[in-house]
Design goal:
The protein is mainly alpha-helical. The protein has a domain at 98-268: Multidrug efflux transporter AcrB transmembrane fold (Up-down Bundle), CATH 1.20.1640.10. 65% of the residues lie in helices and 4% in strands. The chain contains 9 helices and 4 strands. It has a two-stranded antiparallel sheet with strand order 1-2. α3 packs parallel to α6 (156-185), α5 (135-150) runs antiparallel to α6 and α7 packs antiparallel against α8. It is elongated, with a radius of gyration of 33 Å.
Length: 279
């Protein structure tokens, strides 16, 4: 591809007289090897990587982008026969979504592993870390139901919402389990410690979930630019907080009985136990 100066391309006649050098070092006009004429054509000829490109655009509404593109690809493969040298390349928001999903496929497992590792460092117990990790499916259930009830689809913003939701759910689980563990280390029986922990940590857990939930409610009614990002994220977090809070306060204390590690006896408790035994 080349572009001549204005004086060499301002009329068809001048372009026809453009001289070419052959392999035999002979000069001939361009008109001898090509037909030069004015025709109606697109205002620009787009190229990418040295190849001509024609863009066919579409705006997707009312369904997920990935499913729409998959259906179009299937129909195009069945019904469209391209000439030799032509091919389709699917780009735009779909290409961006594919790149983001590929990144999330790596980030999500790393996030779960990082959460488990931090919980292990905090409690120094594989059992308690595993117990609190169980809040992740509790939270995910609400997010999935929220997307289904509102007609939304699992998109990149929704996936990011799940990661944010897991952080809040794990925080509530830590608040509850850590307090129960403290009561147990102080010598309180297991059943009593679980009941007391749920009673005294009910308000902090509810406050954490309620503040995060109410802060995202305006996003549910967003209709302007950016609402396609805000609504799925808010739906996932709000739906997940409802189920995770309920299940954290009900199911997690029940599971604590099976996940609790042995309690290390302090010197004071041992002395008290021996004293009672002597009496």
């Amino acid at each position: 591809m080349l572009r001549y100066p204005e004086s060499y391309r301002n009329t068809v006649e001048i372009i026809r007289e453009t001289m070419l050098r052959t392999t035999d070092n002979v000069m001939i006009p361009l008109d001898n090897v090509a037909t030069i004429r004015l025709v109606d054509s697109p205002p620009t000829v787009n190229r990418e990587s040295g190849k001509r490109r024609v863009v066919v655009g579409a705006n997707v509404a009312g369904r997920d982008l990935g499913g729409f593109v998959a259906e179009v690809q299937q129909r195009v493969e069945q019904k469209v026969r391209l000439p030799e040298g032509y091919y389709f390349s699917w780009g735009g928001q779909f290409e961006n979504m594919q790149r983001a999903m590929s990144t999330l496929m790596v980030i999500v497992p790393l996030t779960i592993v990082a959460i488990y590792f931090l919980l292990f460092l905090m409690f120094n117990s594989v059992r308690l870390a595993g117990l609190i990790i169980t809040v992740l499916p509790f939270a995910s259930i609400g997010g999935i139901f929220g997307l289904a009830l509102t007609g939304e689809y699992l998109s990149v913003p929704a996936s990011v919402g799940f990661i944010a939701l897991w952080g809040i759910a794990v925080l509530n689980g830590v608040v509850l389990v850590n307090f129960i563990r403290q009561l147990r280390e102080e010598g309180m029986p297991q059943d009593e410690a679980v009941r007391e922990g749920c009673k005294l940590r009910f308000r902090p857990v509810m406050m954490t979930a309620t503040v995060a939930l109410l802060g995202l409610v305006p996003f549910l009614f967003a209709t302007g630019p950016g609402s396609e990002v805000q609504r799925p994220l808010a739906i996932v977090v709000i739906g997940g907080l409802i189920t995770s809070t309920l299940l954290t306060l009900v199911v997690l204390p029940v599971l604590y009985r099976w996940f609790e590690p042995p309690i290390e006896e302090t010197a004071e408790q041992r002395h008290q136990r021996l004293t009672n035994a002597d009496v």
